[in-house]
Amino acid sequence: MPGRGEVREEKVARVATLADGILTRPITALVGVRGVPASALQTMRRGLRDRKHPIVVAPNSAIRHALERASAKRASLKPLLDRVEDQTALLSAEGNPFSLHYELTRTRTPTPARGGEIAPRDIVVPSGATSFKPGPIVGELQHAGFPAAIEKGKVVLKKDTTIVHAGQTISHEVAGLLTRLEILPLEVGLTLRAVVDGDTYYPPEVLAVDLDAKRADLTRAVRAGLVLAVEIGYTTPASVRMILTKAHRRALGLAIAAGYPTKETIAPLFAQAIREAAAVGRLTGP
Predict the structure, then answer these.
(1) Could you tell me which residues are beta bridge partners of residue 195?
(2) pLDDT in tens, 101-148
(3) Sequence-ordered strand ranges (E) for 154-285
(4) 128-129 and 200-202 beta bridge pairing
(5) Number of CB atoms found within 10 A of residue 20's CB
(6) Which CATH class is domain 4-108+189-208?
(7) Percentages helix, strand, coil for the chain, rounded to the nearest 5?
(8) Taking a C-beta distance cutoff of 8 angstroms, is the pair 238, 226 a contact?
(9) Separation CA 142–CA 150 (nearest Å)
(10) Which of 58, 195, 252, 258 could be stapled to 62 by a disulfide with Cβ–Cβ 3.0 to 4.6 Å?
């Protein structure tokens, strides 16, 4: 068996390796792995490693020592020390911290409650018919706070109900009924606790940006800006073709209205003259 000195040397070497890994990439993130099954965690780690985002699960003490050692060279890492809690992994990456947050969010999947968990958000049970047959289940639902009743031979929930509020403990009774209703109120997956990108510290609430919504907002803004540029005649690479098309269309309309003949207006001018002559002929005819 290895002696205490050998064990200590291994721990020191591990901390040094973690610290070196932190300093080799601009992004350092703390990731919560609580509740993630071992098999799922291994799959997630492989996927992140393939995208050059290696994630290391280590004891919190080793992560703290590594951060302390690395923060001597990069002071911006110090705030991460307050986020080392519960079951933690260390992730080093390159790129965009917002994209990293989005990537980790996609690892999270709905999972049933077993009872005893803290609700991360309000758990709302929608109204409507259930798959239950009339019987003792109605009393069980009512006892747990579900607005259950029997209508036309079916067990129904009379109205939308917040059965557990955010921050409250999910009871075993409620958890069992939610599972039977096929409501999965929890999520399992990696949770981004905090990120340092270079000299900038990002708490998780700053990184929780709906990228799809932001892209849609940007698209709408670009479209509105293009319409405005065309309207006021402000030329840019994107607007110049539309401005010229609009000017050409207006010039053509003005030339036709003024009876000014050009290669482009002669045909519509003749057509207009023929129509007007026919109209006059009908007025002066027998």
Answers:
(1) 29, 202
(2) 888 888 788 888 989 988 988 999 999 999 898 999 999 999 999 999
(3) 154-157, 161-164, 186-188, 191-197, 200-202
(4) unpaired
(5) 12
(6) alpha beta
(7) 50, 15, 30
(8) yes
(9) 12
(10) 58
Cα Rg of the chain, angstroms: 34
| Nearest-angstrom CA–CA distance, 21 and 52 | 12
Asked if 140 and 246 touch (Cβ cutoff 8 Å), the reply is no
Its pTM stands at 0.58
Q: Which CATH class is domain 123-183?
A: alpha beta
CA atoms of 262 and 260, how far apart (whole Å) = 7
**In this structure, how many other beta carbons lie within 10 angstroms of the beta carbon of residue 36?**
22
Assign residue 167 a region: left if phi > 0, alpha if psi is -120 to 50, beta otherwise? left
Where exactly are the structural domains of the chain? 4-108+189-208, 123-183, 214-284
DSSP class of 106: T
**Partner residues linked to 33 by β-bridges:** none
